[in-house]
Amino acid sequence: MLARVLARLAPAPAALLGPGDDCAVLRPSGELVVTTDTMIEGPDFRAAWHGGFDLGWKLAATNLSDVAAMGARPIGLTLALAVPRDTPVALLEEIASGMNAACCELAPGCGVIGGDLGTAPVLTAAVTALGELAGRPAVTRAGARAGDVVAYAGDLGLAGMGLSLLFAEAADADGTAHARTLPALRAAHPEILAAQLAPAPPIELGAVAAAAGATAMMDVSDSLSIDADRLARASGVRLELDRAWLERGFGLQRGVEVPVPAMLTGGEDHGLLATFPAAVQAAGLPGGFVAIGRVVAATERSEVTLDGAPLQPTGWDPYVVRWPGA
Ligand SMILES: Nc1ncnc2c1ncn2[C@@H]1O[C@H](COP(=O)(O)OP(=O)(O)OP(=O)(O)O)[C@@H](O)[C@H]1O
Ligand SMILES: Cc1ncc(C[n+]2csc(CCOP(=O)(O)O)c2C)c(N)n1
Ligand SMILES: [Mg+2]
């Protein structure tokens, strides 16, 4: 079984030794960043909506974006996967293929360097991602300074729109997901379903932003309003978002009209929220980044505002949000 899975994986150039031994061996070019994230069938995804390839792609993309958000270049992923006993081996092969494809397309040079296979009552996948900083300091959430510009790169709100659509049109009244309507939904809304099921965040822009002088950065996983609030608190500043800038930059994405509330509350796009000094903006933000607001000194008032009004952090919180059947 493992041999069939490993056959789907291309060697990662940064790995001196890949899957097959007790550990993989890497030679990073500088300081290393490490992150890990778990996806569990039920609270995090529905098998009825995901093919194995999509799931593997999303597992890779959502972890690569965390590496990118530190300003690092991804060099390797590990996958710890536990599945119900009756899972077809083909599904495991598809997951491996999807992870491999996401690495090749979103983070060339990165690959799956190891993992673990086991059984569990529901599909449970934990991915660990490693990245190298190549001599630059990591870009944390804590470096935003008054006077900086707030910028974003990637899809914004599309993945959340995809999730709402799936719960509305591909689930029974009790929340049980089904695939009966999926072909029609995919035909009618290919972009927003792809954004939710197989997101393609701009991974390479993480290192580009760092090189351009980003002062703070994070990937947006829960929602722009929640994650901007986290960045503001970590940096001890206030972020003033501008509705007109959001509309101009993200009102039309991949041919889809995206309302501002969807941009502010949708999760899982895994784009990059970054702050840059005003001088970087004056010279031109790195390609792909769009200015959406300004950093100002903190006050007692709310950490994030939209056109001057406090913005309530709203979006995904696994301990609060309860989709039907989750
Ligand atoms: N069980 C844990 N033990 C130690 N550290 C943890 C644990 N859970 C989370 N953390 C740390 O807390 C911080 C926030 O975790 P979280 O999973 O919210 O990351 P995130 O980047 O905000 O989200 P995402 O992974 O969806 O992008 C991270 O630095 C993470 O390493
Ligand atoms: C069935 C189903 N229910 C809910 C969601 C939404 N969701 C799951 S993980 C996540 C982001 C951050 O996760 P974490 O912070 O745990 O890494 C979000 C918004 C989904 N995609 N599918
Ligand atoms: Mg993150």
UniProtKB/TrEMBL annotation:
Matching InterPro entries: PurM-like_C_sf, PurM-like_N, PurM-like_N_sf, ThiL-like
Binding site for Mg(2+) 4: 22, 35, 66
UniProt binding sites for Mg(2+) 2: 37, 66
Enzyme Commission code: 2.7.4.16
Binding, Mg(2+) 3: 22, 66, 219
Keywords of this entry: ATP-binding, Kinase, Magnesium, Metal-binding, Nucleotide-binding, Thiamine biosynthesis, Transferase
Pathway(s) where this gene product acts: Cofactor biosynthesis; thiamine diphosphate biosynthesis; thiamine diphosphate from thiamine phosphate: step 1/1
Domain of life: Bacteria
Ranges where the PurM-like N-terminal domain occurs: 20-132
Catalyzed reactions per annotation: thiamine phosphate + ATP = thiamine diphosphate + ADP
An annotated Gene Ontology molecular function: thiamine-phosphate kinase activity
GO BP annotation list: thiamine biosynthetic process; thiamine diphosphate biosynthetic process
Binding locations of ATP: 115-116, 141, 221
Residues reported in the UniProt entry to bind Mg(2+) 5: 222
List of residues binding substrate: 44, 268, 316
Annotated positions binding Mg(2+) 1: 36-37, 116
Pfam families: AIRS (PF00586)
Known function: Catalyzes the ATP-dependent phosphorylation of thiamine-monophosphate (TMP) to form thiamine-pyrophosphate (TPP), the active form of vitamin B1.
HAMAP family in the cross-refs: TMP_kinase (MF_02128)
Additional detail: Reaction mechanism of ThiL seems to utilize a direct, inline transfer of the gamma-phosphate of ATP to TMP rather than a phosphorylated enzyme intermediate.
Family indicated by similarity: Belongs to the thiamine-monophosphate kinase family.
PANTHER family: THIAMINE-MONOPHOSPHATE KINASE
Name of the featured protein: Thiamine-monophosphate kinase
Originating organism: Leucobacter luti
Lineage, broadest ranks: Bacteria, Bacillati, Actinomycetota, Actinomycetes, Micrococcales
Gene: thiL
